[in-house]
Write a structure and sequence with these properties.
The protein is mostly helical. The protein has a domain of 71 residues. 50% of the residues lie in helices and 3% in strands. A hairpin with a 5-residue loop joins strand 1 and strand 2.
């Protein structure tokens, strides 16, 4: 059965090129080897989707191996749980960009406090 054109990309997103599609498929294969890691990184009601950051981490781990000369199938098998667990996300409320520190210095450029002294 052939899908109508309007159903081929229901999200309205861009079509993924063949290389990206292959890497994403390999990344999902690697994630399937670690169901507990995958379960911990699922979101939406009932775990409907896995974190894109986890998929990217798996894809990067695979592509590093492929670029080093390993076959894609072997690279998938060599991805470790430690590599996937090594992914660290920074919580938004805890992240403070370096530029924000400059704003709090007294009298400095972009300061929120008035400069002391006379002009």
């Amino acid at each position: 059965m052939k899908l109508p054109d309007e159903l081929k990309h229901p999200s309205g997103g861009e079509h993924v090129d063949e290389l990206a599609h292959n890497v994403l498929s390999l990344a999902h294969e690697a994630l399937d080897r670690f169901p507990e890691v995958k379960r911990r990184n699922m979101f939406l009601a009932g775990g409907a989707a896995v974190s894109s950051a986890l998929v990217i981490a798996a894809g990067v781990a695979i592509m590093k191996r492929v670029r080093a000369g390993q076959r894609p199938e072997d690279a998938v098998q060599d991805v470790t749980e430690e590599e996937l667990e090594g992914l660290r996300l920074v919580e938004r409320e805890h992240y403070r960009p370096p530029a924000a520190e400059d704003e709090t210095t007294e009298g400095g450029e972009g300061s929120t406090k008035p400069a002391t002294g006379t002009d």
